[in-house]
Design brief:
The chain is α/β, with parallel strands linked by helices and about 325 residues long. The protein has two domains: about 120 residues, NAD(P)-binding Rossmann-like Domain (Rossmann fold, 3-Layer(aba) Sandwich), CATH 3.40.50.720; about 200 residues, P-loop containing nucleotide triphosphate hydrolases (Rossmann fold, 3-Layer(aba) Sandwich), CATH 3.40.50. The protein is built from eleven helices and 14 strands. Helix 3 runs parallel beside helix 4.
Length: about 325
């Protein structure tokens, strides 16, 4: 499928959905839409993903597209008015529009009318199925080893770590699958439950359903974590995934030098050991999961500083750690598998 990715004013630093698709999805990306960096190439900013031109809008592209993907998800998941023109152009050309926003495009009168008129489809991947139920407490009974990524904050690399570890595990000959719980993972994998949109009582059940669906088909399930257990807004989602997946092992994800919670800068991050204690204690009633490895995002550091930061993070954890993009994952996988 040939797609364009909308990432206005956010590429690359705050466009994690766009980056996830460029790095992992099986799409032919025609362009990234970003008014601020238009005229460049994706690889000018991120060298290790699929390359594509960066353009100011849909008007700069030919008509050979299948879909426009909204590749950013602001806090609250709303639809920015400044994106509407590009979405209109895509729909008028008969393209599908794929969105991971909390604002459902199919409920937008103007956009749904344009889709109907021109034969495009509005796909809201953050819309959960209607048949979800509460957890039955059965995820721990599957044959697969369940590995969950947990974080010190949002946007610290849980999705990337999940994808990289699963991919490297498969490359090493292991039968591993990803359990996608957020919009980016769902867009990459083509299935999943958007946990941050599920009714609270059904959160653990939605995760359990996926674990039970795949747990007897694979040896290892890498579950995409969400949020952070200390996050003022998103801790409930984090807890729901932890209890619903009943993991066997945890991987703690962190960003080097990060000291406060994104979007809630008056809240300082606790120590790494506090996170370990919190996640292990919270898991304890449903599983014996320990934090057995760490993943550190060192994107803002030079090589020597990054290596030192990873070593210090591993020492704090008392477990192997790596930057899954910058370094190999051999030691981390050895501790997990």
């Amino acid at each position: 499928m040939r797609v364009a990715i909308l990432a206005h004013e956010q590429f690359p630093d705050r466009a994690k959905t766009a980056l996830g698709i460029l790095r992992y999805a099986d799409y032919d990306v025609a362009a990234v839409l970003d008014r601020e960096t238009a005229g460049g190439q994706v690889n000018d900013y991120v060298p290790d993903v699929q390359d594509a031109p960066i353009v100011a809008g849909m008007d700069a592209l030919a008509d050979d597209l299948d879909a426009l993907i909204i590749g950013i998800a602001p806090i609250g998941g709303g639809l920015e008015d400044s994106w509407r023109e590009d979405i209109r152009v895509a729909l008028e050309r008969g393209c599908d529009v794929i969105s991971g926003l909390h604002h459902f495009l199919e409920d937008d009168d103007e956009l749904s009318r344009l889709a109907a008129e021109h034969g495009g489809e509005l796909r809201d991947v953050r819309k959960p199925p209607e048949d979800l139920t509460v957890s039955e407490g059965l995820a721990g009974e599957v044959d697969a080893e369940v590995i969950l990524t947990v974080g010190t904050d949002c946007s610290v690399g849980k999705m990337t770590t999940t994808m990289e570890l699963a991919r490297d595990a498969r490359a090493a000959g292991h039968d591993a699958a990803v359990i996608p719980t957020g919009q980016t993972g769902i867009m990459i994998e083509g299935w999943g439950n958007p946990i941050d949109r599920v009714v609270s009582d059904f959160t653990a059940g939605a995760v359990e359903e996926m674990i039970r669906e795949k747990g007897d088909e694979h040896d290892y399930l890498f579950v995409e974590g969400q949020g952070s257990i200390v996050h003022p807004a998103y801790s409930a989602v984090t807890c729901g995934i932890l209890h619903g997946s009943m993991p066997d092992e945890l991987v703690l994800c962190h960003t080097a030098g990060k000291e406060v919670i994104h979007g809630y800068e008056s809240f300082s991050l606790p120590s790494i050991q506090t996170y370990v204690d919190l996640y292990e204690s919270l898991a304890a009633p449903v599983s014996d999961a320990d934090v057995v490895a760490g993943a550190l995002n060192t994107a803002g550091l030079e090589d020597d500083a990054a290596a030192q930061a990873i070593d210090e993070f591993a020492t704090e954890l008392g477990a192997p750690a790596t930057d899954v993009i910058r370094e190999d994952t051999d030691d981390v996988l050895e501790s997990l598998l």
